Automatic annotation (TrEMBL):
InterPro entries the record matches: MPAB/Lcp_cat_dom
Full protein name: CLUMA_CG013728, isoform A
Recorded superkingdom: Eukaryota
Positions of the ER-bound oxygenase mpaB/mpaB'/Rubber oxygenase catalytic domain: 88-200
Organism: Clunio marinus
A GO MF term: oxidoreductase activity
């Protein structure tokens, strides 16, 4: 890899990510060590005028921003270690528990966006409660030897709530022409992050807008494009529970159609259905060979993160494709497949992989942890295509849309049409009225649950 010449903004973004990944995952960096109501206070750098402008930006784009949260949630629960931790809590594993959890999350967030932030206010008490919940969940996970909620996890979770809205607004119907509005939105999330326990050194929203935008694009390129392709049993379980639980509020939906739209939003090659190709942007490579090596070694030493060694923060973008293997294949064809397991009758089952890098070298050993993550029960083969900025244009197409059922294709088209209508000044009031009805139903359901 030739020496990289970075701009000052790129260098700042890279330094933030390296610090977050190398230090934010350490046991010494949990979401909180303790919490005291008396110490709960606004940060010294809080700008009330800027915060309220960020709230107004939400009010002007609430449908699109709340939609970005939905797809951000899909991105977050697709991360294998986090999905496993969430599944163990039992709070999001069924349609009923998922409905209760995500309605509560939505209403918490709406208070942050809409209510003045001051001691005793609804938003103040909400943030305090959520912070206590995070601390309790992190300590519970540690006691059960499931890891902890780290500063890194908190920072990446925050991306799920604001990242797509910031750097992919054109796919969400968000009006984003005013730079000062976007700066205010970033400041709002800097404050929210602080109040929820993110330390300043790991709070990306304290950086200038241009740096934050690059950080978000790098998160997408190096992390979430990989995560969203991990169609694991746990992710599917949590995702289907979420969709089923929310059908009362959003009836025209399915796991497959929402996953397609989430992957489209992240810009995964193959999901460019009905997008403006001139806006499909992947930030160029900014890490050098030594930095990638540091990241690989770091992930290898974090329990549950071994899969990230080659699949996340790799110099190549990995495109995954799982295919069923015909059990009637002849023995010669079977022998060409790398077998992970054989039963007592020597029949192939489980998960098999043949993965070649750009030079045609097999890299099976580097992604061995994926065998456990996918946990496929039928003969299957995983192919991985590695691309970079030199050849990625060859893979930007909509061929994955054709793999959907006719029903899911219709749902995807309906979802895209919904976004288009949000940007139409004549149709927008009707969609805003519909969104208000959804919020009313959520508040009604939440009130009934808390009687």
């Amino acid at each position: 890899m030739s020496e990289l010449k970075l701009t000052e903004i790129e260098s700042a973004a890279k330094d933030y990510i390296l610090n977050l990944m190398l230090n934010g995952l350490k046991p010494s960096q949990p979401c909180d060590n303790s919490f005291d109501d008396e110490d709960f206070a606004l940060p010294k750098w809080y700008d009330e005028k800027l915060y309220k402008r960020g709230q107004r930006y939400f009010q002007n784009n609430r449908s699109g921003i709340m939609m970005s949260n939905l797809y951000g949630l899909f991105s977050l629960i697709s991360e294998p270690s986090g999905a496993k931790l969430l599944d163990r809590t039992g709070m999001s594993s069924t349609s009923d528990t998922a409905k209760k959890r995500y309605v509560s999350t939505t209403l918490h967030m709406l208070s942050w966006y809409q209510v003045e932030l001051k001691p005793g206010s609804k938003s103040w008490e909400s943030m305090k409660r959520v912070r206590k919940m995070h601390l309790h969940a992190s300590r519970s996970a540690e006691r059960n030897k499931l890891g902890m909620i780290s500063q890194c996890a908190m920072a990446m979770t925050k991306f799920g709530f604001m990242g797509y809205a910031l750097v992919r607004p054109h796919l969400l119907g968000i009006q984003h022409d005013d730079k000062e509005d976007r700066e205010a939105f970033v400041h709002l999330w800097a404050v929210i992050g602080y109040m929820l326990g993110i330390k300043d050194e790991f709070n990306m929203c304290l950086k200038p807008l241009e740096v934050v935008e690059i950080i978000c694009r790098l998160f997408i390129r190096y992390a979430f494009i990989a995560f969203l392709q991990f169609d694991t049993p746990t992710f599917k379980k949590l995702g289907e529970a979420f969709i089923d639980g929310m059908k009362y509020f959003v009836p025209f939906s399915s796991f497959e159609s929402r996953l397609f739209l989430a992957r489209r939003l992240a810009g995964i090659p193959g999901y460019q259905y009905d997008v403006d190709m001139s806006k499909e942007f992947f930030h160029r490579q900014i890490f050098n060979k030594e930095e990638f090596k540091m990241l690989e070694e770091n992930f290898q030493n974090v329990p549950g993160f071994e899969y990230r060694r080659k699949m996340v923060f790799n110099d190549k973008m990995n495109l995954l494709d799982v295919k069923r293997i015909d059990q009637k294949k002849n023995e010669h064809e079977k022998n060409e497949i790398l077998l992970d397991n054989m039963d007592e009758n020597q029949n192939i089952f489980g998960y098999y992989m043949r993965i070649d890098d750009a030079n045609g070298n097999n890299i099976h050993d580097d992604v061995e942890p994926l065998l456990e993550i996918f946990d496929l029960k039928h003969p299957s083969e995983l192919s991985i295509t590695q691309v970079d900025e030199n050849n990625i244009q060859l893979y930007l197409n909509d061929h994955k849309f054709k793999t959907l059922s006719s029903k899911d294709q219709w749902l995807v088209k309906a979802g895209i049409n919904h976004v288009n209508m949000i940007t139409n000044k004549f149709a927008r009031p009707f969609y805003e009225a519909g969104f208000s009805v959804v919020l009313y139903l959520m508040e009604k359901y939440h009130g009934e649950q808390n009687k």
